[in-house]
């Protein structure tokens, strides 16, 4: 439907007659405030940064859990914190986490497990097979037929399979984008 200039003029004049000036002013004020909010939101992009308690490295934030939990509980805690047990895809990520683990001197759970099929190791959050690995020499051993969760050891900063119900520290990972407004 096309409205001519004359028709628009008539509609506007009728609207002005029907509504009191105070209502029109209030309406105009609401329109102005809405426009300001739209402009303000338009200037906000993805804000990069890690929440407190998380350490940034490249595109991720890492939380080095300071309590000890079985692997399953560690995964749940990471999810409650907005992340997941760490998944290590590159040598750079591995070097960062390995260095931190050696410095802190305690073992940390990571997100790899062969719980589903023995010796078929997967990152359990993304359900992907391990494209990059940093197993300690001769690991994984599946010692006692019951080692199905992966940890980073502080002795050499490399990975070992261990019993999932053992309580140790854990590393969570999440994206470093904390706020996205479009
Ligand atoms: Ca990762
Ligand atoms: Ca195993
Ligand atoms: Ca082992």
Layout of strands and helices, then pairs:
Blueprint (H helix, E strand, L loop, with lengths): L4 H14 L2 H22 L4 E2 L6 E3 L2 E5 L6 H10 L3 E2 L5 H14 L3 E6 L8 E2 L4 E2 L19 E4 L6 E4 L6 E7 L1 E3 L3
Parallel strand pairs: 5-10
Antiparallel strand pairs: 1-11, 2-3, 3-10, 4-10, 5-6, 5-8, 6-7, 8-9
The structure holds calcium ion (3 copies).
One calcium ion (CA) binds next to loops.
Query: Main β-sheet: number of strands, strand sense, barrel status?
Result: 9 strands, mixed
Q: How many domains?
A: 2
User: What small-molecule ligands were found?
Assistant: calcium ion
Bulk shape: globular
- Strand percentage lies at 15-25%
Supply Rg. 28 Å
Q: Could you please say which CATH topology of the largest domain applies here?
A: Mannose-Binding Protein A, Chain A
Distance between the amino and carboxyl termini: 32 Å
CATH class designation of the largest domain: Alpha Beta
The helix count comes to 4
Could you say which structural class the secondary elements and strand pairing correspond to?
A: alpha+beta
> What is the string of SSEs from the N terminus onward?
HHEEEHEHEEEEEEE
- Measured as a percent range, the helix fraction is 25-40%
């Amino acid at each position: 439907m096309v409205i001519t200039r004359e028709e628009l003029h008539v509609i506007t004049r009728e609207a002005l007659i029907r509504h009191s000036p105070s209502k029109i002013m209030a309406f105009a004020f609401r329109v102005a405030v809405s426009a300001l909010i739209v402009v303000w939101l338009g200037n906000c992009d993805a804000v990069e940064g890690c929440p407190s308690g998380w350490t940034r490295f490249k595109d991720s934030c890492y939380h080095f859990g300071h309590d000890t939990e079985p692997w399953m509980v560690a995964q749940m805690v990471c999810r409650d914190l907005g992340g997941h047990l760490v998944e290590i895809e590159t040598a750079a990520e591995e070097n960062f986490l390995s260095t931190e683990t050696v410095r802190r001197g305690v073992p940390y759970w990571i997100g790899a497990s062969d719980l589903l099929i023995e010796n078929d190791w997967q990152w359990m959050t993304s359900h992907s097979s391990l494209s990059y690995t940093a197993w300690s020499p001769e690991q994984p051993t599946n010692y006692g037929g019951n080692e199905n969760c992966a940890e980073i050891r502080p002795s050499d900063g490399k990975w070992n399979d261990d019993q999932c119900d053992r309580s140790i520290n854990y590393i969570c990972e999440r994206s470093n984008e904390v706020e996205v407004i479009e």
